[in-house]
Amino acid sequence: MSYVFPPPPQASVAVRGTADRFPVRRIFCVGRNYAAHAREMGRDPDREPPFFFTKPADAVVDTPATIPYPPETDNLHYEIELVVAIGRAGTDIPEEAVMDHLWGATVGIDLTRRDLQLQAREQGRPWDWGKAFDRSAPMAPLVPIAGVPSVEQGHIWLAVDGEVKQDADLSDLIWSVREHVSILSRSMALAPGDLVMTGTPAGVGPVGPGDRITGAVDGLAEIEISIGARA
């Protein structure tokens, strides 16, 4: 067998402290998983079932990095998130077994073309053009799960040019990591290489060329990106 053209390089994320890479299979994202962010997006924060959307594997970007301002938007937003990495396959995973399926965790930014997302939402269309564009998932190096202090609690924050914009705790998640990974696994067979971006706190907002974005889940990982000129 031969391919009709050379396959693209495997999308991957760095692993902290090593030369190893974590191969990325799929990126799942959890929508509106912090109550205050649900409110700022005009939605009810009650515990209705979590919903998911995806980004392509090759949306990942190693950080620190400069990311060109993407095309077809005038309203690019940041969303800081805890990211967990699946290392063991599973379907219909019980909540109490979720941690056994995690390879590691890190912090990432769900870059969003907010104008395109809101337009799609108003028209009842998929969010892909607002969420799943090139270089829309910058991530810090993954930390193997043995070195992760917690996926249940911890200070999560983001700043733009040194001014804190998002400031919360992982304990504020509406659906915990154990809960929403378990729910996700009922619909999709999770496999090694899958990443789950777990939702963003309140305080999202626009950035433009020249802005420097920093953030962290304290004790786990820090991230830094800059926004470059329009692509």
From TrEMBL:
SUPFAM superfamilies xref list: FAH
Domain (Fumarylacetoacetase-like C-terminal): residue spans on this chain: 27-224
GO molecular function, one term: metal ion binding
InterPro entries noted in UniProt: Fumarylacetoacetase-like_C, Fumarylacetoacetase_C_sf
Superkingdom of origin: Bacteria
PANTHER family for the chain: ACYLPYRUVASE, FLUTATHIONE S-TRANSFERASE
Protein name, as recorded: Fumarylacetoacetate hydrolase family protein
